Every structure is written in structure tokens, then in C-alpha cells.
Amino acid sequence: MLADPILATEVCLLQQRLSALRWRMVVHRLLQGGVLTTIFLIGTILAVVGLDIHYQLPSYVRALALVSIFGIGWVLLRWWVVQPLLHPPTRLQVALRLEREYPELEESLVSAVQFAQRPKDPGGESELLRQRTIECAVAVSQSLDFPRILKRRWTLAAVGMGLVFLAVLFQLPRPSAAVAQAAAWRLLDPFGGHTFPKQTQIEIQSPQVFPYRLARGEAFRLRITLRGVIPPRYWVDLWPQGASTALAIPRPTPEVPPEATELTFDLFDLDPERLLQPFRFRLRANDAETTWYEVQVVAAPTLVPLDGRASPQMTLHYPSYTGKPRERLDDGATLTEAVAGTRIELRAKTDRPIARAWLDYHPEKPIQRWTPALTLLMARDARTLGGLWALSREVWAPIPVTLADDQCTLHADFVPRLRGTYALRLDDGTGIVGTRLFDLRIFPDPAPEVRLDRPLPLHDGLLFLPDAALTLATGADDGKYGLARVGLEYRFSRQDTPQALVLAEFGTPLAVHASADAIALLAGSAIVYGSQPIQHWAEQRRLPLSRLVKANGHPPREGDVLFLRAYAEDFDT
Questions:
Q1: SS3 labels along 453-475
Q2: Is there a contact between 518 and 525 (Cβ–Cβ < 8 Å)?
Q3: How distant, in Å, are the alpha carbons of 335, 349, 402, 434, 530 from that of 305?
């Protein structure tokens, strides 16, 4: 305890200055150490993550990096952060720093701090020496800048490094959230098997079940979806059973807009000649790669002889108006020509029992597959829509094939409506479908040619009295299967619905007759009967205008304008 109150006050102020200085030293140490430690930890973590993203570091390298980061980080954290907090410098240590910074103190400050902290020892140092030492330390320290020992330039340098590090950090390219998350897990759990999300993802839409069973000789079709970055090409790795290496097949990707991130398409149709044995395949696009998928190639149901004759066995039943008898095609024939309306009877046998069979129509032009949908758009009301729907179903719906009790013998009876390829499908019930193709060249009965020769403007004139009779000369030709009907359409204005007057109606080649109306109108006309098709017909007779009544039942009168048109029909009209 000092006897001089003034000196005691000055000593107390000196101790307060030293205490404040010691905590400022702690703050500067924490700031410097915290910034440097943070820069080290974040910088090394980002460096390892960046290398891993670009080069896919092995697990042991990531594990070594993780141990090193945490080990060195803990040492730096303990030295720069934990140590200053747990063991801050004492006033004596601060005084020693000041003595080194200011030699003019001549150890008076250290001695003064010791004298102030230690109580007076009656048998020890002189009281006068204590007092003079403290007075000297107080007097000299009042003019000194204690904070100079904090070395602010080091703190400012650390803060500057931190700001530069942040600026560089914000300039670095940022990976997606999924990539960043995967990179963090790969670093924190090096042996966990974590992988980065691919820039491109491949999803197989069909088939969805593997191992997939494929009929031998059938084309193998895949439908896939690419998401993310759509590359300009992809690869199909095909590994046939027994081969030493896989065959890499490059294929171009369908064109898409640059901003597209998803594309679904039919992947490829492999040549069936390559798929005669089981194989494995995988797909590669950009950085995406699927696993190996197995495809089992098995024999599909096929046709075998029926009753000692080759399958299929087809019989053509021509329309009755053609006058042609039924025709049995050569056994095993798959190509035939027939007029529209011909009924085909098909019999065949398979090499093993099957679950079901049917016939599919494949048009010659793929665009014809849209015909049913386009046809339905033409419907004006519900009744028309129902009729068009029934018609499209008859043309495009699968044609049923009947199975006998042995599940091997097939029978189909159908009328092909359109020209093209018909496929006989044979399903064995296990997903294997065999196919036999038939080329049916169905042609329509050509439309008849019809003419109206009289009345003529120069020969007959075009002005008639209401009770007059005009000279009517018509003719029709159908050189293929003959005429079915010849008539006259008339109306008294362009807005009226045409009315039909049948001039001659011919039956099938077994019965040809004239209509009652034509007999009444054309009195004395010659009507042809016979068993042969009527391919050419021409008549000229007088037609009373009074027989051409209007829609309201009234005969023509003066001032009316009559419009005439001849027509002819064949048997498939």
C-alpha cells in the first residue's frame, strides 16, 4: 500500500491502462487468427471440392484431405483462438512487451507492476526504492503510446486478406445445389459411395422390365428420355453373348432447341440380323451412363404346315357382282391382289400352342395412321361422329383370329378395306410375339364414266314449253365389272336438293332389269337382260317434262329453269 494518495491513484490508472491493453491484445489476436484460420479452412475445403468435381478424386485422397484439413484447422484454431481466450496475457507480460518496445523504461515498468501486485515485505526491499521505482515508471509511461505494441498493421493485413478472399470467393463459378451437396457428402463421407449428379440423365421408358425377352428376328426398340444437357450424339454399347468386347454404336440425337432440357424419342432399331443370340447393352450420353441391361433372344411362334400343306392357306371370295368364283391361293402365299370387298379366309398352324392371335393393318404411308383422327374431325353431329367412328374401327381395329381347341390351328375370316401390309401376330403368352406379314393389294372397282349427250344447245335448243318432251341421250361405260345403275339428277334452282330419276338399273350378272320409273318414262325403250356384266350402255328417248316434278309435287311451269346431270354407279358404290 503506498503512503502517497496521489501516487496510489496514478498506479491504479497505470494498471487500468495495462488491463485494457491486454484485452485489446486478445481481440487483435482473435481477429488475426480467426481470419487466417477461416481462410485456411474454407480455402482448402473449396480447393479439395473443386478438384473432386473436376477430377473425381479417389476415396483415399478425399479421406487424407479431410484428416489434414481437420488436423491443421484444429491446430490453428487452438493457437489463434482457444489459447488467447483461455490464457490471456497478464499485466506483467504486457509490461514486458512494453519494455521491449520502449527501452527508455529501463525495466521500471516491470518492477512497478511487480511492486504493485506484491504486498510490502518488512524484511525485503526498501520502501523508498519501491516508491521511487513506481514514480519513475508512472512518469515515463504517461508520455508513451501503449497501443503501439498491438502491431495494427498485422491486423489490417489479416482483414485485407479476408476481404480479398471474399472477393475471389464471389468470383468463383458456382456449381448447382445438387452438385455442391454431393461434393460436401463425398468429402465428409469419403467411403460412403456418394456420386455427383450427372449433367445428363438417361431414363429408359420402354421396355421397363429386364431381363427383356425378345423374339428372334424382331427389331429391338427402346424409348428413352434424356434430361439436363442434351448432347449432339449418344452411344449404344452392345455386348453379344460370347463376345470378348462390346460394340460401341454412335447415334445422332434428334435436333432440339438449344434451351431444351428434356427429350423423349425412340432410341434405335437394331438390325435383327445382329440379334440372333442373347446380348447386353448400355447407353451413354454426355457424362451419363446406364447400367448393363440383359436381353434374352428366344424363338418366336412361327407357322408350320397344316394338313400336309404350307401355312398360311388363303381363299379369296370375290364380291358376287364380279361373277368370279372363289379362288384358292398357293399354299404359303403372302402376296395377293383383289378387288375391294373381297372376303379372305385364312387358315394356318403354329409350331406350338399360343395364347392369342390377331391381324394388324400397316398402311403403306405412315401418315395414313392419322386418318381416323382426321376423319372424326369432319363429323357435323353426334350421329355422323358415331358412323365415322364405327367406320374407322372397322378399318383400323385389330382383326380377331380364332384359335382351335389345340391352341395351334388358326382361322380368320375378314374383308380388308385398304391396301397395304397386314401382320399376323402370334402371342405365346410370355411376352414373345411372332409376326408373319401379308401384302394385300386391294384396289377399288374403277368408277364408271358417264355422259349426257342430249339435249344440246345448238341441236335441240334450251327453251321448252312446260308440256313438251325433250330428247334425252345418255351413256355410261364400266369396262371392269359392269354397271349397276344409270340415272338422271335434276333440280329447278341451284339451291334445291337434286332429285334422282333412275333410267336403268342392272342387277348382278345373273339378273339385269330396268327400273319401273325408267320403263314408264321411256316407253318403248329396249332393256337389256343377260348373264354377262353390262359394261357399256347408251340410250336416246323422249322425256316428257311433266314427269319431272318439283320437290313439292308440282310439275314445271313457265319461267322455271331446269338443271340436268347424268350419273352412273357400279356395284361397289
A1: EECCCCCCCCCCCCCCEEEEEEE
A2: yes
A3: 18, 7, 18, 16, 44
Provide the pairing of β-strand 293-298 with 212-215: parallel
CB 215 within 8 A of CB 295: no
Residue with grid cell 401384302, as numbered in its chain = 439
Euclidean distance between CA atoms 272 and 249, whole angstroms: 15
Length, in residues, of the chain: 573
User: Residues 217-246: pLDDT tens digits?
Assistant: 777 888 999 988 889 899 989 888 888 888
Query: Among all chains, which residue has been given the C-alpha cell 436381353?
Result: 295
Place of cell 424382331: 218
Is the entire prediction scored with pTM above 0.85? Answer: no
Residue with cell 406379314: 437
Angle at CA of residue 402, ends 397 and 403, nearest 5°: 135
Residue pair 125/99 in contact (Cβ under 8 Å)? The answer is no
Residue 352, CB-side half-sphere exposure with 13 Å CA sphere: 10
Residue 211 preceded by cis peptide, ω within 30? yes
Quick: pLDDT tens for 410-462.
999 998 888 888 899 999 888 788 888 888 888 888 888 899 888 887 777 77
Cα angle, residue 342 at apex, residues 339 and 348 outer, rounded to 5°: 125
**Cell digits for 7?**
501516487
DSSP secondary structure letters along 204-244:
EEE--SSSEEEETTSPPEEEEEEEES--SEEEEEEEETT-S
Q: Which helix (H) or strand (E) holds 538?
A: strand 536-544
CA distance 408 to 357: 10
Q: What are phi and psi of 299, to 5 degrees?
A: -75, 135
Measure the CA–CA gap between 141 and 6, rounded to whole angstroms.
16
